[in-house]
Amino acid sequence: MHVLNDTPTVCFLPDEAATLAAGAALAGCLQPGMVLTLQGDLGAGKTTFSRGLLRALGVTGRIKSPSYSLVEPYVVSNLYLYHFDFYRFEDAEEWQESGFREYFHADSICLVEWPEKAAGSLPEPDLALRLNWSGEGRELQVRALSPAGAACLNRFPLAG
Ligand SMILES: Nc1ncnc2c1ncn2[C@@H]1O[C@H](COP(=O)(O)OP(=O)(O)OP(=O)(O)O)[C@@H](O)[C@H]1O
Ligand SMILES: [Mg+2]
C-alpha cells in the first residue's frame, strides 16, 4: 500500500497564459485511465486550465466550456478525453440516467469541473486540483490521491 503525501503542490498563476501553461505542463504526465477533478469558485480558471491541458494532449479546434452540455468529448488517437462540468447537476438519479459512469474507463482521461455537485457518484480522482483567487491571479493546488497521481506529480512538479 502506498502512503501518499497529502501536502499539495502549489503554484502561483499570475495570468490566463500561466493557467494555460500549467494545464499543458500537467498534460505531459497523464496516463490513460486517469481522473482529474477541478474545484474552485465560478471564474476561478478551471476551464482555462482544462483548455491548456486538452490542447497539449492534441485537441484541435474550439474547446467549449461544458457548462451547458455537462460534457464535451474529444478523441485523440486512441485516447478518449471527457471534459465535464457538473455545476448544473441536480442529483444522484441524474447520474444514473446520464450513463456518465461508462465514460470513466481505462482508455479515457476525465477532467471534472464542479465534482462536488456529483459527490458520491464520481470515481475517486487520481489528481484533485483547486484554483483560488490570489490578488489579480490565481493559486493552483494539486493533490495526488492515487499512486498513479503521485507518480504523475513526481515526474512533473509544478513548482513556483
Ligand atoms: N491565472 C489567472 N489570472 C487571472 N485571470 C485568469 C487566470 N486564469 C484564468 N483567468 C481568467 O478567469 C476567467 C474565468 O476562467 P474560467 O472560465 O476558466 O473559469 P471556471 O473556473 O471554469 O469558471 P466556471 O465555474 O464558471 O466554469 C477567464 O476570463 C480567464 O481568462
Ligand atoms: Mg468552467
Automatic annotation (TrEMBL):
Source organism, top-level taxon: Bacteria
Species in which this protein is naturally found: Leeia aquatica
Pfam families per UniProt: TsaE
Membership in a protein family: Belongs to the TsaE family.
Subcellular location: Cytoplasm
SUPFAM superfamilies: P-loop containing nucleoside triphosphate hydrolases
This protein's name: tRNA threonylcarbamoyladenosine biosynthesis protein TsaE
GO cellular component terms, semicolon-separated: cytoplasm
GO BP term, pick one: tRNA threonylcarbamoyladenosine modification
Broad class of where this protein is predominantly found: cytoplasm
InterPro entries recorded: P-loop_NTPase (IPR027417), T6A_TsaE (IPR003442)
Keywords, ordered alphabetically: ATP-binding, Cytoplasm, Magnesium, Metal-binding, Nucleotide-binding, Transferase, tRNA processing
A single GO molecular function term of this UniProt record: metal ion binding
Keyword Phosphoprotein: no
NCBIfam families per UniProt: T6A_YjeE
